[in-house]
Amino acid sequence: MAYITQYQYYDNGGNSPQDANWGSYQYVSLEDIVNNFMLMYQGNHELINNINRYQVLFFAKRAIQELNYDALKEIKVLELPVGSDLKIFLPSDYVNWVRISAEVNGVLFPLSENFQTNFATAYLQDQSGALLYDQNGNVLSPQYSDLDLGRINNTAPSLYVNPSSPYDGNYGWCIDDVWYFRWGIGGNYGLNTETANGNPVFKIDKQSGVINFSSNMSGLLCVIEYVSDGMENGNDGSVKVNKLFEDYIYAAIKYAILNNRFGVQEYIVNRAKKDRRALLMNAKIRLSNIHPGRLLMNMRGRDKWIK
User: Residue 129: helix, strand or coil by DSSP?
Assistant: First the structure.
């Protein structure tokens, strides 16, 4: 395990960027993990022997990926402006989203996911309804479908939320900050809670790799908080994991190798599996960082009088 001087840590040895090593001590690199495993966990007098380095590297990457999905919670944050097409692309290392917000005057407003479809692919047809094809036999498609145009041009109805208004919970059209509604016949009862939100809404198109927003998101700044797999776009030299999980990584590599090796007794595989599970639970408890002062601040709300 390599150590650096304080001059290298704080000023990067006089090189640029100065903050290259800030916070690095809490992490162990993928290279160190593989080197340590090859030195300490395999050999002629160890349970694992005659293992290739590329196998250890593969299982180490898989363990780090599973940690990023489940336990590490190291959230990446990206901000992008939303243009007139009401869509932004997903980050290159995106796996799953944590929170998507709109920035307005320095305040982040969390957005709700729209469970109703607001995008689609359309096919061009002639007057008789037959599909139109290009010279390669592929169906022709317009740039935007009717669903997309309704969302982009704000011609699709949206939910109006204002408890002090008689139109609260009705669908209407917001044009130049003025709401228009259909003539209501009869009573509307109940509220569609999954769309009851005054902020813009979004829908992720995973196949196209974009996020589609409602019309009131145009011109705003979108902040995406998301989970990555920790592989740093394939650059093994940048992959690292928190030191609290280092023992778990070694246990996960050992279990994966023993579980895929022929002729290993079942009790040895089960013991390695239990070690991996126990070390993962211990690391989660450590990373939770439960502090009595934080619990006390949350408990203080119990004594507040409700008037």
Answer: coil
**pLDDT tens figures, 227-260:** 888 888 888 888 888 888 899 999 999 999 999 9
Strand partners, 210: 89, 205
Query: CB burial class (10 A; 0-12, 13-18, 19+) of residue 250?
Result: buried
Residue ranges making up the domain that contains 208: 76-227
Three-state DSSP class for residue 71? coil
List residues bridging with 48 in a β-sheet. Answer: 42
Q: Are residues 195 and 95 in the same domain?
A: yes
89 and 177, same domain (yes or no): yes
Using alpha carbons, select from 53, 22, 74, 29 the residue that is nearest to residue 243: 29
Q: Against a cut of 0.85, is the pTM above it? A: no
Residues 201 and 160 in one domain: yes
- In eight-state DSSP terms, residue 133 is B
SS3 content of the chain, % helix, strand, coil (to 5): 35, 20, 45
